[in-house]
Write a structure and sequence with these properties.
The chain has 298 residues and is α/β, with parallel strands linked by helices. Helices cover 53% and strands 13% of the residues. The strands form 2 sheets. A 6-stranded parallel sheet has the order 3-2-1-4-5-6, with helices on both faces. The chain has a 3-stranded mixed sheet with strand order 7-8-9.
């Protein structure tokens, strides 16, 4: 029998499904629950076990990992008679990898602690490709001992794994990450439209830019999206809109000015209002095209 901890995984979306599958490949026993039956079928085909409820998934788990869209969903799966806290065993470790407000993580850790359940907030960066390739950056908040216990599991999911401080710290760093990514994508989108309107070979230009100081992981990951106008979601505009709300609110709370970030947050919101919320965040290019009178931005 395996001596590895038994894992329950709640939330099998674009990120959650490949991450859970990477744990199965690493030898972990994974029982999953999500609202989409086809995702449960996918987990079962990968060697996991599909559960019929949150309670069923977590009741015998040593480690519970959650990956859902936002704070309301985390609260919905964590609290109440059918939730994680009322059904997990004492001593279990709950690793929330969703991107939520720092305060939600702090409140969850406090409530879980009253039931003898340990908690880490461990949001990730790297998008769908990073999840599939198990090269995510994982920013963690919580106790050192819990981080040490979770590290082997996290190493099956990512490459850069850092304890950033107490509960909520992982979410604070993730908010900063989303600020940087959004501003970077917006800058890349503006450069693409500028280059094309100037008659420059876009592919050549992006290659040379990415080899210099303007290069970035964002440009490496998204340049094909820009060149081909392919915006199938790796990370949806809707979710980045949520994250920009988190960072602008958190920055206001601590008194940090975000002059550029606030502008980009409004551009993300505008794109969402125009019906592009389901597209990848690289679709910020469409907003720049519209502002520039570009016909393909219609």
């Amino acid at each position: 029998m395996s001596t590895l901890p038994k894992i329950a995984w709640i939330g099998l979306g674009i990120m959650g499904s490949p991450m859970a599958e990477n744990l199965i490949k690493a030898g972990y026993t994974v029982t999953g629950y999500t609202l989409e039956p086809d995702k449960l079928d996918r987990l079962a085909k990968a060697g996991g076990t599909a559960a019929g409820s949150i309670a069923e998934a977590v009741s015998d788990a040593d480690v519970i990992i959650t990956m859902v869209p936002a704070s309301p969903q985390v609260e919905a799966i964590a609290y109440g008679p059918d939730g994680i806290l009322d059904n997990a065993k004492r001593g279990a470790l709950l690793i929330d990898m969703s991107s939520i407000t720092p305060q939600t993580s702090i409140d969850l850790a406090r409530a879980a602690g009253q039931k003898g359940i340990r908690v880490l907030d461990a949001p990730v960066s790297g998008g769908e490709a990073g999840a599939i390739e198990a090269v995510l950056s994982i920013m963690v908040g919580g106790e050192q001992s819990d981080f040490d216990a979770a590290r082997p599991i996290l190493e099956a999911l990512g490459k850069t794994i850092v304890l950033c401080g107490p509960h909520g710290s992982g979410q604070t760093v993730k908010a900063a990450n989303q600020l940087i990514v959004a501003v970077n994508i917006q800058a890349c989108a503006e450069a693409v439209v500028f280059l094309e309107k100037s008659g420059v070979d876009l592919a050549a230009a992006l290659d040379v830019l990415n080899g210099g100081l303007a290069g970035s992981t964002v440009l490496t990951r998204k340049k094909d999206n820009f060149k081909n106008r392919e915006f199938a979601p790796g990370f949806r505009i809707d979710l980045h809109h949520k994250d920009m709300g988190i960072v602008t609110d958190a920055a206001r709370t601590v008194g940090a000015a975000l002059p550029v970030g606030s502008l980009v947050a409004q551009l993300v919101a505008s794109l969402r209002a125009q019906g592009d919320g389901g597209l990848d965040h690289s679709a910020l290019l469409r907003g720049v095209e519209r502002l520039s009178g570009h016909p393909t931005g219609a």
